[in-house]
């Protein structure tokens, strides 16, 4: 595998029929995203009655550099990547950066008004995190040259994932708690990370590998009951153990959003693997039971549900966040106040969990719809990648990752718009936050890697026999070359 | 594997579709509710970013204006008069909300009325900033200045109210100590907080509007109301009343009520005096007996006619605390009510209004502070016309009280007499507190002038004797202030 590259080989070795790589289209779409994001930054500045400044050049320059680097990385290491994935992510990341910058301006004004020193701008940190995320992106592309290798590390990843996830639970709360949720690993003075973001990916990979290996048993064996084929629990053992451990840790740390996300994603993956609705029904029944139990057992769950049912019951107390979010959205209306012309800073956690409310206020329904459609494109391209994948593992992994993105958007955006009870989660690529950004770029790299495997033209037959033949079980069927008449070997 | 994955793709479309539908519902159908919700601070912030109208005094002197500035709120509220008008204008604070006229006239000043809300939406679309209307007061800067300077020069705690008797226009309304409203309207939260906390800790509090927002025992100034009630019964100004230095209060087991300083009334050595003399020398024993003989009902009727215990109090543009007579449960209470003690509580504004009504021969004019309101282009929205509320005191009785007040002024000490000017007045030195004999009394002076053709009626109240201690009297402390205010009011052309 080490001698594989995605760069086209010498022309003499490639079929004359070259498959389009999609890189030109990707470049144009990236330019489109760059234009939108740069214009948005300028708009913020103008609406805030500020002159165009060097900080603006810093942000837009940094963003453009990030786009260029990502594009070049893909050209070098994933030439046949799906051309839509990166531009959509770039647009979302850019819009997030603009909104975070805009909230920085508001925070500055508020600090000056309170006579406090101006806070560290989150936007510049987010730009640094974007750079780090690109490094992660590159590392994943470099290390995972073929996504199928991940299968061999499935159990290791599951173990690492669950252990990583559990670290905050054993750390003292001074090193692990932020806003009441004990889900962080804080390195004082340096950074804090949210292990759940990474554990989620590890568990999805594990689930994909596990389900592929158990697919046949899962979709056939089992007792029938009321027309449903009940699966055998022991077939799912390891997956259930990993899931229950993860859920226990998350619920204990009050990270309901991630628990919901993980549960939903793994359930969807089981469904993809087996195609059996009975699994969905069992999963949803389990969810209903768990949700009811959580409602009865945990006061913070009850509070969330009560706020959801009646946010205006205590608009200045427990319902404050959601009420402010709804006010922001309502004030924005159809067309929004315009970037920089609203007051999204009134909504608590506007740059993280509630960034969609902030965007809804300033960009209006039109802007929010555009952003949600971006997520739809992203998720559907991911699912398409899964459909096009040539191996079951690729299908499951891409499908799981893509669905997890969509579900995360559903949970957090549904929460801040009062479609469902509010559980804390970041909005992928938009929200401020290093862990979230890094993890999502890892997901992007994995999706791109899987898309390469299906979009890449078949490897031309090497001129010489392979140095290291693949094991027979993994070997491709090969075409027998038909020697042309001009072949020297056929002369005389 | 492909078929379930395709179905999942459809599920994702449904999920995003649900989000979109719900957000559309929030941002389109519920949007107006959310925008108009009182808890939505955005509406408030938008209001602060508007060019607010001006508050001006008579003659166009600016008391509050909005200057364009280069920050997110675009306009800075400025009060050029600083403390002199603070009790009237109030302040326009983002943190503590508007007070005074800034609050009471907010709809005009902010350009915010139900009709204008539709206009604001179109303003949002057209990008035009809505502007507020202006409020012009009846207050005459020269009179306000005279009153404010006289009070602050002596560091008095109290209030001065001057009213034009024939129209009910409020010519001056001062409360001291005052405060500078400018830092409270600062766009800096820190500056606002610092200023506000300093005011909260100040003692005596500058945030109390002593002219309208506080009530005090009126002491002897209340004898005007008793006299007016008595003169409508069998009394005349010449009716003899007791001149004794002290009388027993009935049903109290020997409690007594005595004259100021324990003296007999006037110089009669305890012999009866006329009602006029009793008022001029402010004899407590006489008025206690007059009150007891007139009875509670006529006194209460007269008090209510003059606006006491009337709810709601007249709308003059700033909040008024209602003045009251008290329950008058027994005869002893009635005797004390007769000298403006016990439960009688008057705001300086109320005493000025009563004095103005006497000056206007009993014809009670609606008091008002707002002369007119105008649109940003200065076209008039509303203009206050003088309005009579009726004959609160019969004309002959009001004239008799006036004459008695002229006699009273002649006996009143204190500086500031104006040559060739006949003033009608009454002083008051009101005990208060839990230990009234050892607490410096409130000093009152109510007056109008010229007596035959009144142009100004004034009430002065100085809390706790203005630093003169137990020796303080209305004539020593409050009368000079009242006379200087009268002089200022008449200087413009008597």
Folded structure, characterized:
- Chain A is mostly helical.
- Chain A has helices spanning 23-47, 54-77, 85-114, 122-143, 154-170, 195-220, 233-252, 256-274, 277-297, 299-309, 320-332, 355-388, 392-416, 434-455, and strands spanning 177-178, 181-182, 185-187, 191-193, 223-225, 228-230.
- In chain A, helix 5 runs parallel beside helix 7.
- By secondary structure, chain B is α+β, with helices and mostly antiparallel strands.
- In chain B, 37% of the residues lie in helices and 17% in strands.
- Chain B is elongated and about 120 Å long.
- Residues 115-119 of chain B have low confidence and may be disordered.
- The chains are: A mainly alpha (492), B alpha+beta (494).
- Chains A and B meet through helix 3, helix 8, helix 11, helix 12 and helix 13 of A and helix 1, helix 2, helix 3 and helix 9 of B.
Structure, briefly:
Chain A has helices at 23-47, 54-77, 85-114, 122-143, 154-170, 195-220, 233-252, 256-274, 277-297, 299-309, 320-332, 355-388, 392-416, 434-455, and strands at 177-178, 181-182, 185-187, 191-193, 223-225, 228-230. In chain A, the strands form 3 sheets. In chain A, strands 1-2 form a two-stranded antiparallel ribbon. Chain A has a two-stranded antiparallel ribbon with strand order 3-4. With 492 residues, chain A is mostly helical.
Summarize the topology.
The complex is a heterodimer of chains A (492) and B (494).
Chain A: H1 23-47, H2 54-77, H3 85-114, H4 122-143, H5 154-170, E1 177-178, E2 181-182, E3 185-187, E4 191-193, H6 195-220, E5 223-225, E6 228-230, H7 233-252, H8 256-274, H9 277-297, H10 299-309, H11 320-332, H12 355-388, H13 392-416, H14 434-455
Chain B: H1 2-29, H2 31-36, H3 41-48, E1 55-56, E2 62-68, E3 75-78, H4 86-89, E4 92-93, E5 97-98, H5 100-104, H6 106-110, H7 114-126, E6 134-137, H8 141-153, E7 158-163, E8 170-176, H9 189-201, H10 223-231, E9 240-241, E10 246-248, E11 256-258, E12 273-274, H11 275-280, H12 284-294, H13 296-305, H14 331-337, H15 348-359, E13 363-365, E14 370-374, E15 380-383, E16 388-391, H16 395-411, E17 424-430, E18 442-449, E19 456-462, H17 474-491
Parallel strand pairs in B: 1-6
Antiparallel strand pairs in B: 1-2, 2-3, 4-5, 6-14, 7-8, 7-19, 9-12, 10-11, 13-16, 14-15, 17-18, 18-19
